[in-house]
Sequence to fold (174 residues):
Amino acid sequence: PILASAHDNGSICLWSIQGKLVNEILPFSKYPSVPLTALCTDISTKMLLAGSKEGHIMCWSIESFLEDPQNPKNQIKEELCWRAHPTEVVDLFHEEEKNVVVTASIDGSVRLWHAMNGYYIGYFGQPRMFDFSDISRLILPSDVNSFPIIIKEESKHMEKNKKFEYPLVLDRDK
Fold:
């Protein structure tokens, strides 16, 4: 068994039952690290979901890591990140039968999202019925203007190894 804790610096710590830190992960996204406010897993613990103070949802694949945490090849892979609300996410859960993520925010809204791609399904209280069959229709709520980001291993690897040079130049005239 592994315990997960979310922190103000945007990291998630995974602990053994004995209290030993097993792994620490940070979201890989273009946004700066913000406090995480909600955590959940699916029933089969294949994925870990986190909600942030700024309304983002991040999804990691943890299945291979949990099978053998000591094996360095079994990494935790962030797969998806999307903006779910304009304000803080206070709760979320994954409904496995329909493969849906339900999110709640301090703005009072409760929204449904496709778990595989972060596409918006609808909100509780809407006049139409939820349509779970069409997972290819990309729409956004009116208060969200950024599309889901699917994180590929190649881009993650390239970002980590990117080197920047910032030479300091003394300009005596200034």
Observations:
- Residues 16 and 46 are 17 Å apart (CA to CA).
